[in-house]
Amino acid sequence: LGSRKLTMTVLTAGMGIGYPTFGRVSEGWWLPFAVLLTMMCSFFVQAAEGSTFAIVPLIKRRVTGQIAGNVGAYGNVGAVVYLTLFSLLPEGAVGNRIFFEVLGVMSIIVAFLCGFFLKEPEGSFAEHHKDEEDEEEVNLESVPMFAED
């Protein structure tokens, strides 16, 4: 398995780059470029969400459901906080730019926190995968290359 910590850090940093770029979009932008930017930022946002939930079962297997519920609930709390912030900003392009820049800065801060303070989860499923390393080491000499007639 790869590093979930690194994956989460890179994806969250990608969000931090994509959001401020959204703040720079204006009506003068070429439409296919704006659509491509939306697709790229959406990739990072959805993949970062997935990486968050991918860490959940590795924290403590016995309480995975409760942890997943808290992750989802606090995601909704964050959505309400950002929606409240958005409603307080001035209308128009200036407010939109400020909003996306705030999202980007917060994403960079979270990426920094993940990179330096998140511990790589280990061992919660170790008892289920203890024999996998032995199975992966296949003796290639015992595998026939051609079918024998």
- Number of helical segments? 5
Low-confidence stretches: none
Extended strand count: 0
Portion of residues within helices:
55-70%
Shape from CA axes?
globular
Structural class: mainly alpha
Biggest beta sheet summary: none
Query: Residue-averaged pLDDT, rounded?
Result: 84
- Our Rg estimate from Cα atoms comes to 22 Å
Question: What series of H and E elements makes up the topology?
Answer: HHHHH
Percent of residues in β-strands:
under 5%
Question: What's the number of structural domains?
Answer: 1
Q: N-to-C terminal Cα separation, in Å?
A: 39 Å
Features:
149 residues; mainly alpha; 5 helices; 0% strand
What is the fold's blueprint, element by element?
Blueprint lengths: L3 H20 L7 H29 L4 H25 L4 H25 L14 H5 L13
Q: Could you characterize the architecture of this molecule?
A:
The protein has 149 residues and is mainly alpha-helical. It has one domain. The chain is 70% helix and 0% strand. It has five helices and no strands. The protein has helices at residues 4-23, 31-59, 64-88, 93-117, 132-136. α1 packs antiparallel against α2, α1 (4-23) packs antiparallel against α4 and α2 (31-59) packs antiparallel against α3 (64-88). The longest helix is centred in the N-terminal third of the chain and has 29 residues, at 31-59. It is globular and about 65 Å long.
